[in-house]
Amino acid sequence: MSNKLIFYILIIMVPIISYAEIDWNTVNLARAFGKDIFELNGVPYLQPMVESINATSNSRFFNQAYVPSEVDKPYFKISVNTMLGFVRDNQKTYSPQLPTAYFDISNPQTWGELQKYADIDLMHQKIIIKDTAGLMYYALKTVLYDGIYGAHKGLIKVPQNSATILGKQDTLFYLPHNALDSLVRSNPVYQFLPKSFQDTLIATIAKFPESFALPPGANINTMFAIVPQFEIGSLFGTEMLIRFIPPVYMGSNIGHFAFWGIGLKHSISQYFPGMPFDMAVQAVYQGTSLKNDIGVTSSKLNTMATFWDFNLQIGKSYLDDKLNFYSGFSFESININSDFTFTLPIALQWQLGLIEGKYVPVPNSKDSVFVLMPPDPARGFPGDSVKQTSNIRINDFNFKWVIGASYQIGPIAVFLDYNVSKFNIFTGGIEVSF
Questions:
Q1: Looking at residue 296, what is its pLDDT?
Q2: Cis (ω within 30 of 0) for the bond into 234?
């Protein structure tokens, strides 16, 4: 998995153009465009990864349904649990979107958005601009809509599929200058714009990147986690579960991951003497934290997630309670809140003229490589110092069926089970009781 892919580029795609002088109208347009692309595509691009990581850790809560109704003294269980999750094909692609805005000059209701940026005098067919940057970006979105869905459908094409962070696929947004120029000039509002704004808009569109490469994904097929767990029981047929992992660095793709959980499991079969199998219910509340600095620009990701798991368990023991088969049905609820702080991607900064790129000789060779240099304001390469922020919220639920077996050897138990859901997981581990 490449550390240039995860969560990144923060979906603020990498344009493919050549070096140009700094045009701040184009820079500001690229910032607004990149932020909207991130917010449109960030959820479908990142959601499979975030859900898969958390679904993997949100497993391995039980290895039997039996809970004694009363004990002479408390018992304790310490276990190490491993989880291996398998990525499905439908988690590897999504349908990308470009930011667009619908505008119909014949419908007065659609003038509301335009009036945020300009005062409109229809009687004299004049527009007095209040927000030049805002109007310019709104104009770009309206022509994109026209070229994708409207009267000039087909001039701008949106790829049907692109890779999520779990997939692998090279995909481009292509915004040809000639198509954008034609769409701008054919827009019915264009004739009402002041001549100076018309010229600025056309000049900015001419310098706007034509090709935007979507992140190709990291081609991830499995997820793996190890979680320590502590249990204590039993009080009125109830056990308490505690699990905790301090912040651990899990590589450049994931960053620092922390995890905690607490749960209660209560015996149902204690109320039905003679029941031929054991039955229990369990509720677990968990939280995770994920922090990472991504890419050369050190874009910052901070994700907090909380989970509820409610499950019903049944089990049956054989061989003098040494061999135990168990099964369970779970309902899981997940709430993920991710904050991103980012600047323009390093490649885009170069293409907009914010940083310098140069060829550097390779030591002991006649070859040279092209290197992007750090910002150097004194020489006219200020870099992108404007930090943008964005927030992504993911709310989801999942049903899970668990089936497994455990074997007790004195105070030690080993166990293995399979979790069937939209993200299938093998789990197993070893437990010591005392």
A1: 64
A2: yes
